[in-house]
UniProtKB/TrEMBL annotation:
Keyword GTP-binding assigned: yes
Quaternary structure, from the entry: Forms homodimer and may homooligomerize and heterooligomerize to form the phragmoplastin complex. Binds to PHIP1.
Protein known as: Dynamin-type G domain-containing protein
Keywords: Cell cycle, Cell division, Cytoplasm, Cytoskeleton, GTP-binding, Hydrolase, Microtubule, Motor protein, Nucleotide-binding
Compartmental location: Cytoplasm, Cytoskeleton, Phragmoplast
Organism of provenance: Gossypium mustelinum
CDD domains reported for this sequence: DLP_1 (cd08771)
Gene Ontology biological process terms from the UniProt entry: cell division
Domain GED: 522-613
SUPFAM superfamilies attached to this UniProt entry: P-loop containing nucleoside triphosphate hydrolases
Amino acid sequence: MATMESLIGLVNKIQRACTVLGDHGGQGMSLWEALPSVSVVGGQSSGKSSVLESIVGRDFLPRGSGIVTRRPLVLQLHKTQSGAEYAEFLHTPKRRFTDFAAVRKEISDETDRITGKTKQISNIPIHLSIYSPNVVNLTLIDLPGLTKVAVEGQSDSIVEDIENMVRSYVEKPNCIILAITPANQDIATSDAIKLAREVDPSGERTFGVLTKLDLMDKGTNATEVLEGRAYRLQHPWVGIVNRSQADINKNVDMIVARRKEREYFETSPDYGHLASKMGSEYLAKLLSQHLELVIRQRIPSIISMINKTIDELNAELDRIGRPVAADGGAQLYMILELCRAFDRVFKEHLDGGRPGGDRIYGVFDHQLPAALKKLPFDRHLSLKNVQKVVTEADGYQPHLIAPEQGYRRLIDGSITYFKGPAEASVDAVHFVLKELVRKSIAETEELKRFPSLQNDIATAANEALERFREESRKTVVRLVEMESSYLTVDFFRKLHAAPEKKPEKNGNPPGPNNDHFHDTSLARIGSNVSAYIAMVSDTLKNTIPKAVVYCQVREAKRSLLTHFYAQVGRKEKERLSAMLDEDPQLMEKRTQIAKRLELYKAARDEIDAVAWK
């Protein structure tokens, strides 16, 4: 079995590592919170600071009237085999304090840095580690003293704010509560005991400490409390005799103070029979023994939590990606794999696995037919324009039977209008494909860590889409021009020409429109051309989508990054590294996850090794 010092020392080590990595809060329970620690609770001027100093054996905490502890102080005691005592703060990790008066000043300065030189409080903790052969391995959290009234310079909510802060620590199931109460105060009115009872009604986590026993009125004593008759706890009460103000003013050494405390209990007629279980040294050992017991009880749940967190961290590393290899071949392979991941997402958009591809169908089913309906054939095939075109086509020699040249010109002019909707369909699909490229890049999880590669893929994909658009535009324009290059003769052969009506003989001279044709003939020509154009429109309404899909959508699915692959294969290693230049924030996030993962794995291995020796 591991020794008490090794097990608690390991917990201290893990807690400190958690603190350095910032793994001591947030959603869910962190490893820091899963490991037991001792929170010191008491009213203002209850003697909390003196108890802590007695346990440490050093005078290092700020003193004064009113609220002195204005930020939580996480105090980790590390027992060393030998050597000088020293202290380290988390916020100044490279500075080692051997002068404990300087430690006191640093606590005050660091408190003021957050709260200012006011009487306000902050829930941002100060982390202090003390290394000494004269301490037991222990983590203690000194919390602001509970108060009932706000004094000048404090907000009206200070009483509630302090209580809420203290509660946030002591209500955690792994927190051991050290409830400090002055002996010259009625135990029934103790703020610390009242709060402890609320968060730990069974008393399993609460240790009661009576301070200032030497300041009680003559003829009175606290034996009923210390013996558990006045207020029973599951753990024994411990009496403490702190240094007097005169001793503090004289800078009486804490070692001397401990000796005087032992002498007080050993020679006291009231507490002599309890002397072996009184005093700060006994309290430190009692807490350390209980802490070891709690740690042993919690080891299975701690290991389970560690394993779960390791799995979560590994999954998170897989999600954001492992570190980039330094080898050029490995980098090229990684780039190609990332491109394929993007390509898969892009194809899912087109094929319906993700939204967006349906917008291409919308171009063909709604936008193209609507554009075809809006073409100005009514104006082009009006009687006036039909007469103008046919007359100009005849030239000086009017047609003899049917105005074939007029027909051809009217058809050619009408078919030309189809180029607008055809090219608009090409552009609309091009816009959809570009938007799908953008969305696919954003949705490819593997790419999120490489902003430079994202830009390179976007540029290459958009260049390819431009080439596809140009080819598609040429193709649809050819389709339109093919309709002009060879007319469907059978359509006109099947038309049955209606007999022309002769003008009535009413004595009126023929009007100007009757020089070559009358209105009925012009209307028939316009109607025939309109019918032919409707047939062409139906044809193009089917063939334009085929051409666009073949030239743009199909090519985008087949060869969107083909040119890019060829270019990447010819790049030097330095350029490949630049393409895999990651987002600095993501690199920092991966580094932090990797450190946390290393911490949790080491914690698991060390707990296993130490706990079950």
